[in-house]
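User: Modeling request: complex.
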Amino acid sequence: MAMSKVKTKKLCSDHRTQVGVQRRKKTEALIIRAALNVFAEKGRDGAVIDDVLVAADISRGTFYNYFDSVEQLLERTSRWMVEDLIANFIEPLLIMQVDPAERLCTGLRLFFQRAEADREWCRFIGRIWTIGPLDAPSKDIRRGMRLKIFTVPSFDAALTMQRGTIREALLRIATGDIPKRYSDQITEVIMQGLGVGKLRIAEIMSKPLPVIKQRAR
Amino acid sequence: MAMSKVKTKKLCSDHRTQVGVQRRKKTEALIIRAALNVFAEKGRDGAVIDDVLVAADISRGTFYNYFDSVEQLLERTSRWMVEDLIANFIEPLLIMQVDPAERLCTGLRLFFQRAEADREWCRFIGRIWTIGPLDAPSKDIRRGMRLKIFTVPSFDAALTMQRGTIREALLRIATGDIPKRYSDQITEVIMQGLGVGKLRIAEIMSKPLPVIKQRAR
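Assistant: Request completed. Predicted assembly structure:
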């Protein structure tokens, strides 16, 4: 309670942040959206905090009510970008698939398709995205392990291999210097790391990829 | 020739760096060594360029004769640390092993043994080490592919998986929050990703690990 009072007091110091949790979430989203626009305009490496303040039309004080540091803003923004891609573009295309190997394989291919279309996105996500595991792919790995479709030493090792390989691949794709079929090969090597046999991998990979629809804005 | 003259002229601007390539290499090593000492004292995150200048007893101008930026110093230092570990601690213990799977597996276990003993080292290498592939492990992967011991979609995919998984594991080890047998599981999942069968992996993992000797200083 004492904590809450202190927090409230702090929030009251800025007129934009008086009306509770919902409003707070909205402003946080506003800042992240502003950051995304700044990144789109100035490139993600060149953006500085002042650009974000101008774009979101907030004071420095307000910013630090929501984020501890610019680094934290970058982390949350990169997480938002990945979650948005998975929730709004990839998951809708996977609803008909139940097999965890097929879901993960198709999900990875769609993810890399998006990645290859935007090198700057790759560099940003590859460098910044350091936060915990993502819901959907983790669930697939766990289900696959339960069904013995994935045979791995542990969930933690599987997740480390999957995330690490994805990140390293994004950094490589960001250079623009990738061999033919690189993304598909990365998907294959991840599936192999999860213990899926070569024939099964080839079978899944031979299926046509669902098409990502452009979102109406 | 013209290039060489320009370079020489630049070097002459500082009295410490007049005597050619050998001297240049020596000074570069001196700066990296100084950086290592500063990191050891102040922690790798807290170190700033001025600490390195004092420790190496060089001017800012000299520093920038050798490195474009602090980031470059960090990259080269982290690369030096990994290469030193491989060349002086791991490789000497692998000279009796010829099988690429055994060499890579044992090398990885020794690497992670070192990593687990120093979380700060893990964080530093995990975050900074972004430069190209390392000689020894790349050779093992290529040889393993030629001998069909490793069956992977491509060398590039194999290297991405191996490097990415190692880096992600280092970042995890750096948190201090790792499950039991985590490093061994990471080694196993990398071997599986390279296409080595579970029985063969278990066989190699069951062999006792050679002991890293402390280097006399």
